[in-house]
Amino acid sequence: MSATVLYALDAWYPAVRAGVHSLRVLGEEAxxxxxxxxxxxxxxxxxxxxxxxxxxxxxxxxxxxxxxxxRLARISARLHGAAxxxxxxxxPNTGGSHVLLPAxxxxxxxxxxxxxxxxxRSRALRxxxxxxGRAGLAGRLxxxxxxxxxxxxxxxxxxxxxxxRADLDVTVALGVPGLFRKAVVLASDGAGDVPGxxxxxxxxxxxxxxxREAECLAHLGGSGRAPALLGHGDTGERAxxxxxxxxxxxxxxxxxxxxxxxxxxxxxxxxxxxxxGELAFFGAASARLDALCGATGTDSTWIGAMxxxxxxxxxxxAGGRLPCCxxxxxxxxxxxxxxxxxxxxxxxxxxxxxxxxxxxxxxxxVQTGVLVRHVDAGRLLAELDALAAGPALxxxxxxxxxxxxxxxxxxxxxxxxxxxxxxxxxxxxxPFAQVDWLRRGRTELARLxxxxxLAGAGRGAARKVRAA
Length: 468
Description:
Elements: H1 3-6, H2 9-16, E1 22-26, H3 34-43, E2 48-54, H4 59-65, H5 71-79, E3 83-92, E4 98-102, H6 105-111, H7 120-134, E5 144-151, H8 160-163, E6 169-174, E7 182-188, E8 196-201, H9 204-219, E9 229-235, E10 238-243, E11 249-250, H10 257-270, E12 272-275, H11 280-293, H12 300-317, E13 321-327, E14 336-339, E15 342-345, E16 352-356, H13 359-372, H14 377-389, H15 393-398, H16 406-427, H17 434-454, H18 460-463
Parallel strand pairs: 1-2
Antiparallel strand pairs: 2-5, 3-4, 3-5, 4-6, 6-7, 7-8, 8-10, 9-10, 11-14, 12-13, 13-16, 14-15
Helix pairs in contact: 6-7, 11-12, 11-16, 12-16, 12-17, 13-17, 14-17, 16-17
C-alpha cells in the first residue's frame, strides 16, 4: 500500500502545511539512499513536497538503529534552509489508524496526549511515550519514521489557524479509515505547551461532523464544560475547526455526582419539550429502521427487536411531551476530563441540538457496561434502576423526571444509537470486535425495554413536561 494512502498525506498535509500541490513518496517499498533523495528533491517544482519513509523493519534492525546516526536528521538538516521540513515517528494504532509523533523532544511528549485513552494498556503506552520524549529517547523506540519536506515558495493556503503558527511542531492522529475519518492535529511549542488543536475532515461525512462540532462549541462558548472554539472554516473540500485543549485527569468509569452535575447543567442551558411526532431525533431513527427493514441481509432478530421497541414507544409515549436538550453524543470516560472538581467534555462531533433528556447518561452507562465491564443487558437495566432510585434521583427530579420515566427515554436512546450504527456498519465493514458486543447488547436491551414499556413501566415519560 502506498505510504501516501497509508498516512493519508495527500488528504491532510497540504491543509496543515499550506500551499503544497503534490507529494512524491520514497522508501515505501525499498529503502531509498541519500543520492536517490537528493535527486528526487532536485527534480521537485516549487510547491511540491517529498516524503521519505524509514521503516523500522525487524527486531534486529531496530537494535541496529540504536548505535547509528539518525539518517533522517542529516537529511532534514540539509534541506531545512530551502524547505519546510517535518519529521515524525509513526505509531500504528487500532483499525488501520496512525499517530504521527513529532521528532522534536517536547513535541513528542506533548503529542502523546493524542493517543487513545479508553483502555488501561493505551494509558500505559501514552505514559511510556511521554517519558521517552522528555528523556530524548524517542528515536530509540524502533518505530517507523516519516519525513516530509515541502519546497518553497508556498502559497498562503490551508488552515489559517495553523498557517499563522508555522513554527509549532504538529502531532497528527489519523482516524480509522472509513466514513468519518478525520485528522486531528495538535500544535505544540518548544516547551511542550499546547495552544490548541485542529480537526480536519478527510471524508464528506466527516465534513458534516466537523461543522457540527464547530457549531456546538460556538453555542457552548463560555460554559467551561467544553473546549474554546478558536476558529473554523473550509479549505478546499475539507472543513476544519481549531479549538483549545482541556487539561485534567480522565473521568472515572462509574457515573457519579460530577457527571450528574454536568448533565443537569447542559439540560438547564438547552431544555425544551417535544412531542414524539415532532422530535427529529425519533423520526430519523424510525426512517433508518424502515430503510434497514427493506435492505437485503439484515438480521431478522435485530429487526424484530428494534421494530418491537419502536412500536412500544409509539404506544407508551404518543400523546405526551418529552423533556429534551442538547446531548454530547459520545459521553464516555475517554471523552471526559476532571479538573478542580468539575467535569469537562471534548469530541462533540456527535452532538445533537435536541435529544431526549438523559441520552448521554444512557450512552455512558451502556458503553462502559458493555465495553469495560462486559455485563449483560439485564444487569445494565437493573443497575440503571438502582442508579435512578439512589445516586441519580436528585438529578432526575431537578430535570422534572421520576425513575419511572427512564424506560421510554432509554428506549429512544437504544433505537437511535442502534439504527445509526447499523446503517454506518452496512456502508463500511467495522474493524473492531467491540462493534458486535454492542450490537448484541443493544438488541437485548431493545427486547427488554419493549416488554417493560408494554407493561406500562415507562409511561411516566409521556406525562412529564418541563418547559424549555
